[in-house]
Amino acid sequence: MINPLLFGHAATVGAGSARASADAARASSAAGSAKRDVTHLEDRLDRLSLVCMAMWSLLQDKTKLTEEDLLERVKMLDLMDGVEDGKASRSIQKCHACNRVMSARHRKCLYCGAEKLAQSAFDAI
Ligand SMILES: [Zn+2]
Fold it and tell me: Cα(58)–Cα(75) distance, rounded to whole angstroms?
């Protein structure tokens, strides 16, 4: 004869195990997706680095600019935000429609949906 208390406990344990398996599958899927995203970003960074190197090589060939000129300009642009951290900072942009601060990561205002107006060529990146 089946003890209903034991059977009920086994069902609970089985359901818990199924939930844990589903959670593990979701976590594994999320980890795989994050890994693909990182690989994609690394590929883009490699392509951008290659284009920057090509542009700099062309500039050196066509002008009298030197490595020192480039390093000086990098330092100047780096310091535009007051911090020498090796990063280009973007200025805070406000929405032209609702005047709220716009997210640097989105092309549209999160509040009203207005399109972000490009202020420089780098805003399109
Ligand atoms: Zn807005």
Answer: 21
Q: How remote is the CA of residue 113 from the centroid of ligand 1, in Å?
A: 6
Q: What single string gives the DSSP state of each residue in 9-50?
A: HHHHHHHHHHHHHHHHHHHHHHHHHHHHHHHHHHHHHHHHHH
How many Å apart are CA 78 and CA 69, to the nearest integer? 14
Distance 99 CA to ligand 1 centre (A): 6
Distance 37 CA to ligand 1 centre (A): 29
Strands (E), 31-122: none
pLDDT tens digit at each of 125 positions of the chain: 555 555 555 556 678 899 999 999 999 999 999 999 999 999 999 999 999 999 999 999 999 999 999 999 999 988 888 889 988 877 778 999 999 998 878 889 999 999 988 877 776 66
